[in-house]
Structure formats: C-alpha cells, structure tokens
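lol ok so funny story. i was supposed to be doing the assay writeup but got distracted and ended up predicting the structure for this chain instead. priorities right. anyway since i did it might as well share w the group, maybe its usefull for someone
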Amino acid sequence: MQKLILLALVGLGAQLVDGSLGMAYGVTSTTLLLAVGTNPAAASATVHLAEIGTTLVSGLSHWRFGNVDWKVVLRIGVPGAIGAFAGATFLSSISTATAAPLMAIILLTLGLYVFLRFTFQGLPKGQLGKPLRKRFLTPLGLVGGFVDATGGGGWGPVGTPAILASGRLEPRKTIGSIDTSEFLVAIAASLGFLWGIGSENIDYGWVLALLIGGMIAAPLAAWLVRHIPPRVLGAAVGGVIILTNTRSLLRSDWIDAPDAVRYVLYGVIYLAWAAAIAYSVAQYRKNAIEDQRILAEAEAEAEAEAEAEAEAEAEAVALGSTPDDKDKAPANA
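and the output, tada:
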C-alpha cells in the first residue's frame, strides 16, 4: 500500500511538471520505476498505460484553457504514434541487461538537455505567426515517439524544445499541443508493449496508482502553465533525472564503478544541481524585476501623454476653442 501511495504521488508530481513544462512525466516516472528495480520494458509499458488516462485529461484541460493548436496535434501526433509503436517493439525485443543501461543513457541525455536548456535559457521566445510545416513536424514526431517508447519518456523533451526554438508557436500552446498529442503516442506505445512483452509482465496496480496521481494533477498543471516559473522547475527536475540515471548507469554491468568514484560523482552532481537552481531563481527574479521596470516605464509614459493631452485641451478651452473645433474648421477659412 505504501508503494502504491508513493507511486500516486510520483504520478501527481510528474504530471504537474509535465503539464507545466510540456515534458518530463515519462522521464520522471520511468526513472523512479527503474530505481526500484523494475524491468525496463515493463517500466516503460507501465508509464505509457498510465499516460493514456493522464494525457487525455491533460489534453482536455489544456483545450479548456485555450492552450491547444489542433493542426499541430495531428501533424506531430500521428507520426509520433508510428515512432512509438516501433520503439516499444524494439525495446521489448532486447534483453534486460542491455535495455537497463541503454535506457539510463537515453534518460540521462534527456535529463541533461532539460537541465541545461531551462537553467541557462529558460523558455525561448521568437516571432510568432508562421505555420509549422509537416516536413518539420513529421520527422520530429517519428523521432520523438521512438525515443519516448525506448526511453520510457522523451516525447516532451524532444518535441517541446524543438517547437519552442522555432519561435512559431507561443509557449503555452506548444506545451498544450505536445501534451495533447501525447495521447496518441501513449496508445501506440502501449499497444506495442502489450504485443511485445504481454500483459502478464505489467503490474496494473502500479499503472492505476500513476494514473490516479496524474489525473488529479492534470487540470491544475494546465492552469499553472500560465503562472509557474518554468525555468526553476526545469532545473530542479533535470537534476533529479540526471542524479537518478547516473546512479543507475554507474551501478550497471557496463560500468560497475567502485563506491569511491560513485560518491564523488554524486557530490559533484549535488553541487551543480544546487548551483543551477540558485542561478535559475536569480535569473527568474532578475527578469521579473526587469519586466516590472519596463511595465512601470510604459505606464508612466502613457500617464505623461494623457496629462499632456489634458493640458492641451485645457489650454484650448481657455482660448475659446478645442482641438476638435480646429479639426472641424474649414480648410479655406
């Protein structure tokens, strides 16, 4: 029972992150399932089965808040589903000894990307309005779906930054569209795993626990996407993913590092993690202060213009005319 409650809390926290950043539900959940010794294919299958429900609720919630571009959902979601099915069948066909470190490498790479992207850049902003073309979204969906199924997560870390970097879709619609299209990816990956490893290798109690936590968090995350500082959250979550998967990789048969080496690396990661969070908080506050300063200057300028117009109108009235009277006077008067 304690494990199920913990999994529900994991699902809740992971969905809060995913719904706010457009990434990291699968990466976070799969990382923690692997940390307790779950078979890689079974871990990814468990997460994707839970995601069928969480992405459905998340997509509906984002749609209600106006965060979804349905053209983008279809153009990236369908090829994403194809890539996810292929990735699921691939992961199901390789041995656990090979799959565990391979998945750790994929998750570690995605964690590093999330960590560095949000610590040093935050959410990139560019010029909006230009359409996202199929020749961009189709290969992005195929790659994202394959990585998502083989790594237990990756749809968001692959798709969200790529679309944000294009500068063609505002951040909240990017996050909402990626979360909504993941529903198709989750269904295809789940079918691939059920076909590859069978249903008997999946703990449906764990699926239900992750599902309940994620469904509770999904509506809140869709609302928080407009309010939470994603830069800080991305740095924090990226650190968790890096630390956990570094641990899995160092303890795997591929490396089997001695305790002294592992503890030194853990210490370095903790220090870098703390520094990144502190830096992200500082940058967030700095940008917030700068935004407030710009807003205050704009308000002061508007107020000065209003006062100047009021003074001009008062002066015109004192002289027996108004600016409107001048405009109405005949041109040849």
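The chain has twelve helices and no strands. The mean pLDDT is 79.
back to the writeup now i swear
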